[in-house]
Specification:
- It is a multi-pass membrane protein.
- The protein is mainly beta.
- About 5% of the residues lie in helices and about 55% in strands.
- It has a 22-stranded antiparallel beta barrel. Strands 8-14-13-10-11 form a 5-stranded mixed sheet, with no helix packed on it.
- The chain folds into 3 domains: about 100 residues, Phage tail protein beta-alpha-beta fold (3-Layer(bab) Sandwich), CATH 3.55.50.30; about 130 residues, Carboxypeptidase-like, regulatory domain (Immunoglobulin-like, Sandwich), CATH 2.60.40; about 675 residues, TonB-dependent receptor, beta-barrel domain (Maltoporin, Chain A, Beta Barrel).
- The N terminus is likely disordered.
């Protein structure tokens, strides 16, 4: 800097450059250090260079110059670098870093400098793109690192773009939602989910400061001469945070454009009491508005009036078809390896497709690359362990997790007689490897396997399993562009082994497998526009089932249903568009196309007649990979936010979705042996349109959150089935299927307290869900072709989750749930036909089982908080169903001696105490 100031003082007059242009030389360089190149020019000419050697570093150049001027050679050598040069009249060449050396002070320099001293916010003077820093400013900031960005050029531009990438210095992970503030300009930005940022700065001195919860802030003097890049590697700050059960980023719920989204941290669910003491991030999700299940012991989720098959559940980008264990009581997600869960139920990003209602995105932790760490628990039914193993320091690590159960004793304690002699067990394992190749590339790979086995009766053994694998390669092309290449494979299968007293032993199996490739890009165009775009393709392979005899005496005939295959592909694009300070839009578009593929036999039925085996007109054979049928359509994902006040916003959204795959189940609740069916010539894909509107308000610096959301959803081609439909191992399945229209609407209210001794949330949902099954054929009409409630229609749903901290180590948590009883079809009379008595049933789902309510309590004890100790412990003492409420799981009817009798079954009808010990090391 002193050398540059000296040059500016000496140059008070214009120099004649033309005479220097007449001197030409011939020289060539081959991977020569720039310093050596300058010395060679000095040897060939009378010119002498003046510079600071550190500016040139170890950079090398290559070039062949024949009869070229000094001006041309130097411009080529320093092209793309931050070095400028100035040729003096006495054959001296001065190099400068970033700056342009001017022949004279710009017009009005002293006047502008005088005015600038009166403005507190302005730290430097910029005249015709020349940057001048006052001596006082330089002295004040000697202790703050000064960074120069870009290379000065003669230009009329007054503002330049600074971009960069922010990562954790220790873990090398990107830091999202980090605030970057320019103190002297009163402007700022935040990093995106991948740690990238973009901000427009005025030329000259900008005082840049970073801030984020848990990250040490830093300050830099950034002197910007042109567009450029500045990356940050930041250290973690050690500070104790208040306990929060479910936490969003500060004011994110009010500020972002998307609505109907929820984020839950796995760590923050440890205090929420659940049955049998194990953390369950998916069960906690059902305490939030708009998400429910049909009852205890039921798998699957109903989101905003949608069926359980209308939810896309992802674990590290791979689909998991059945995310539960043990009849839905436990989640199939290891709570010690899971990082968080993000749920989209209103504004589904355009990169996701194939489901109508929601996306559950489960992300597992990255392994610690610095030191060995672990976490484990011992409970009454399960034990669990997770280890983080560094492979290469600061580069790669391996996460290993495993769980197993010893749960048979709990079944023997149930009131239900049919379950007392049952058995059930499960286990799951997970491996995740993360490797940082360099600052631009990293790879993450996950492998997961789970298996359940249970026997409800003494002669049948059921087992089902999930297997998935995914690998993601993230590459940063430049400061504006980054992308992910994802490969994922998932498989779900179940088997039934029947070993009875008769000669009808068999083994039945089912399997669905899918493989997906996705390429998605992120483009930081400006502060106004941020684009995401890409392509994806997914191949489905379904084995609808086969049955084989077991043992030489079995009389069961082997049967194998022909396999199904399909390809689903999509293009997607979204733009986060900041129209103004108040209006933010999230505009998404997806175009999906689906091909049902052979090898297959498709039946064509006579027009004007209901589908049955007797109305088949012809059977058409399709060869391997031959296209049977094609479905496609545009999907729009639009949402917007408008600030009514700084902490009060209104949002609106519209989503259109396609779903090409369906579950086959005529049970009221989800079963592990439900099968999946691909759309084909006779079964069309489901479609839905959802409209939503919401108001979001924060109080007390976002300590309190209040939201009110309403939605209306219309769908078509919803799958249902004829009464008594035979779905398993059915070659003419389309004859049992009914497809109708659906509609759902509701209102969701949430108030949440994020910090303090008392924290938690209260959620209320009013939701209705209906389906209409109408047809020109009487045998396909249900309830006279009018709308009727779905099996999961529960109008009122209230959840209260609260946690009170007596001290830093002791806390009390509670969970209260109330739900309207789900619909059921009752017999309302009987009749005699040909000497036999039969029950006469009401319209479908006209009645309801009793309402459901439950209170759970837990007392939590944390070990002392000493930093240097072998392990940190956590005790959870909980009571599930404190009130001993005998909530009915199902209501069924049995005819005995000509009399119809009603029965109800319950899963947990008494208080269930549990003690679980957790420790982390």
């Amino acid at each position: 800097m002193k050398g540059i100031l000296t040059i500016l003082i000496l140059l008070g007059f214009k120099l004649a450059i033309a005479q220097n242009d007449s001197i030409k030389i011939t020289v060539d360089f081959e991977d020569a250090p720039i310093i050596d190149a300058l010395k060679e020019i000095e040897e060939l000419t009378e010119y002498r260079f003046y510079y600071v050697p550190d500016w040139l570093g170890n950079e090398t150049i290559s070039g062949d110059y024949e009869n070229a001027t000094i001006q041309f050679i130097l411009e080529d050598i320093f092209n793309g670098s931050v070095i400028n040069f100035y040729i003096l009249k006495d054959k001296k060449i001065a190099l400068s870093r970033n700056n342009i050396v001017y022949d004279e002070l710009p017009s009005g320099f002293f006047g502008n400098l005088e005015r600038s001293s009166k403005i507190e916010e302005q730290e430097s003077t910029v005249v015709n793109n020349a940057v001048f820093i006052t001596k006082d400013d330089a002295i004040e900031r000697l202790e703050v690192e000064t960074v120069r960005i870009g290379k000065a050029h003669v230009t009329e531009r007054k503002r330049f773009v600074l971009t960069g990438y922010v990562q954790n210095k220790k873990s090398k992970e990107p830091i999202p939602n980090l605030s970057i503030v320019v103190i002297n300009q009163k402007i700022g930005t935040v990093t995106d989910a991948s740690g990238f940022y973009r901000i427009e700065l005025p030329a000259g001195l900008n005082i840049v400061e970073t801030s984020s919860l848990g990250i040490q802030p830093i300050r830099k003097n950034v002197i910007i001469y042109n567009d450029g890049q500045l990356d940050f590697q930041l250290n973690e700050s050690v500070e104790r945070l208040e306990e929060v059960v479910v936490r969003a980023d500060l004011a994110k719920n009010v500020e972002e454009a998307v609505m109907g989204t929820t984020e839950i941290s796995a760590e923050e669910t440890k205090n929420v009491p659940v049955v049998l003491g194990e953390r369950n991030i998916l069960k906690v999700a059902t305490t939030l508005p708009g998400i429910s299940s049909v009852g205890e012991g039921a798998t699957g989720f109903n989101v905003r009036g949608g069926n359980t098959d209308q939810n896309l559940v992802l674990m590290d980008n791979a689909v998991i078809y059945n995310p539960t264990h043990f009849f839905g009581i436990f989640q199939a997600v290891n709570p010690f390896t899971a990082e968080d869960l993000k749920i989209y139920k209103g504004s589904i990003p355009s990169e996701y497709g194939g489901r109508l209602s929601s996306v559950f995105e489960i992300t597992n932790k990255d392994a610690n690359t610095e030191e060995f760490a672990g976490e484990a628990s011992v409970g009454p039914v399960t034990n669990n362990i997770a280890l983080q193993i560094p492979i290469a320091k600061e580069k790669s690590g391996l996460l290993v997790g495993g769980r197993s159960s010893y749960s048979d004793w709990i079944l023997r304690s149930l009131d239900e007689e049919s379950l007392k002699n049952s058995q059930a067990s499960f286990y799951d394992v997970i491996l995740k490897y993360n490797h940082k190749i360099n600052d631009r590339n990293d790879i993450k790979a996950t492998a997961y396997y789970s298996r359940d086995a249970f026997s409800i009766t003494s002669d049948s053994l059921y087992n089902y399993s999930n297997r998935l694998f995914s690998v993601k390669w993230n590459h940063r092309f430049n400061e504006k562009n980054s992308g992910d290449l994802i490969l994922a494979n998932s498989e779900y299968r179940f088997n039934i082994d029947f070993d009875g007293e008769a000669d009808a032993d068999f083994r039945l199996g089912y399997r669905i497998n899918e493989t997906e490739v996705k390429f998605k890009m992120r483009y930081l165009h400006s502060n106004t526009h941020r684009f995401n775009y890409g392509i994806s393709s997914k191949l489905y392979l379904v084995n609808p089932g086969d049955i084989n005899p077991e043992g030489s005496e079995s009389i069961v005939e082997p049967l194998s249903i022909p396999k199904e295959k399909a390809l689903e592909s999509a293009l997607f694009l979204s733009d986060t568009y900041e129209v103004s300070d108040k209006l933010l839009l999230d505009l998404g578009f997806r175009y999906s196309i689906y091909f049902a593929l052979g090898k297959s036999t498709q039946r064509i039925y006579q027009e004007g007649l209901p589908r049955s085996e007797g109305t088949v007109e012809q059977s058409v054979e399709f060869g391997n990979n031959e296209v049977i049928e094609t479905y496609s359509g545009p999907e729009f994902r639009l949402s917007g936010r408008y600030f009514l006040a700084k902490d009060f916003s209104v949002k609106a959204a519209y989503n259109s979705t396609y779903q090409y795959i369906h579950t086959l189940s005529n049970n009221t609740t989800v079963s592990p042996i439900d099968t999946w069916k691909l759309s084909d010539l006779n079964i069309e894909p489901q479609r839905a349109n959802q409209y939503s509107l919401g108001f979001f308000k924060n109080f007390d610096n976002s300590n309190y959150e209040l939201s009110l959301e309403g939605y209306y959803k219309k769908s078509k081609n919803n799958l249902d089935f004829k009464v008594g439909a035979d779905l398993l191992l059915n070659e003419t399945l389309e004859t049992e299927v009914l497809q109708g229209e659906g509609k759902a609407y509701g209102l969701e209210f949430l108030v949440r307290k994020n910090r303090g001794k008392l924290n938690g949330w209260l959620g209320y949902t009013y939701a209705r869900s209906f389906i209409k099954l109408d047809s020109e054929f009487a045998e396909e009409v249900v309830n006279n072709g009018e709308y009727f409630p779905t099996n999961f229609d529960r109008p009122h749903d209230i959840s209260l989750v609260a946690n009170y901290k007596f001290t830093k180590r002791f806390s009390l948590s509670s969970n209260f749930v109330y739900q309207t009883g789900r619909p059921v079809t009752y017999p309302i009379g009987s009749y005699t036909f040909r000497g036999a008595n039969y029950a006469f049933y009401s319209d479908r789902n006209k009645f309801r089982i009793p309402d459901y309510y439950r209170l759970d309590l837990s007392f939590n004890v944390e070990g002392n908080h000493k930093l240097k100790k072998l392990a940190h412990s956590f005790w959870n003492i909980s009571i599930y169903n404190v009130l001993g409420r005998n909530n009915p799981y199902s209501v069924f009817f049995v005819t005995e001696s000509g009399e119809i009798k009603a029965f109800k079954s319950s899963i947990f009808s008494i208080p269930i105490p549990t003690i679980t010990y957790n420790f982390k090391f």
